[in-house]
Specification:
Helix 1 runs antiparallel to helix 7. This protein is mostly helical and 364 residues long.
Length: 364
Amino acid sequence: MLLALLSITLFAVLSAAAGIHAFRAVGERLDVIDRRVPPTVAALELSRSAERIIAAAPALLAVNDRARRDELKAALAYEVAQLNERLLALRSDGPQALPLAPIDTLVGSLTARLQELDGLVARRLETNDRVAALRRRVFDTNAEIQRLLGPWLDVLDSQVVRASQDVQPAAWPEAEPAGHNLPSLIALQRLTQSAQRQVGAAVDLLAEVSTAEQLRRIDVLEFQLGLALRELVQTAAGLDPRLRPLFLEQVGHLRRISDGPSALAEARRQEIALQRAGSETLAAISDLSNQLSAQVDRLGRVARSEVGDAVRDALSVQQASTRTMATLVSLSLLTSALIAWLYVGRNILRRLSSLSDRMLAIAS
């Protein structure tokens, strides 16, 4: 009887031990999953921050006013701070086995490139302002020249009409017989009109320089502008002596806008160079963002692989423990049946039946 009870108790203890082992093993795997899930979530947030940064960078490059640039700069600074904060959290919470060193390098390079892009945009805005100011000076100078030439042409037109009608001209510029003055008046009129057209052509060239997109085109326009200004100086030599110094003064304004290190063409070249440098920096930022996304995806794959391994191990332990406990319970039931049949039925009950028969015989 003692051996039978001990065998049944042994099976119960083995079943309990198998269950406890299964619970501990599953708990260890769940702990692994719990350690791997936060890095996975942090890696996902890191990737989203990088995507928001790469989405805002082109807008920063294309900005045309300082208020918008400050707004985008603040938004990018916030996203970079969030990126570094999530990387710090990932570094402190993530396991040492995760590949974080490449991500650190890429985040540092991305931050440096964003600062470089912001500096290029600031310089480009300054150059834009300088180009716009020079363009306004061109148009203002053109307006001054037109205000200067317009009255002279009106006077010359009236004098040509009077001379053609053989009428005594006014006392200005000289009071001479109209017939003697008509050829010189017509020549002076044509020369003044030619100066007006040449000024318009030079202003058009300067306006085109301010919006040219190719450096070769700027070189061609600069050469044509030099020729136009020289023609203006030559034309000014034949103008009325009272008009000539005023006209040459305005032509000098156009020459200062077109020549020298602070000229419109040079400012436009700097603007194009800054735009190209910004495009190259933006391409580098995009490449860094792609590399960062690839590293974050790799990090996520490592974390997901470890989580998957832990889940598979937990399922394997659970299945093995289930089979073990089912085996132990089956053995326990089988042992109980054998004890009931062999020991209790064939031994105890047989003896009790024999004793009962004898007691009944004695009683009879």
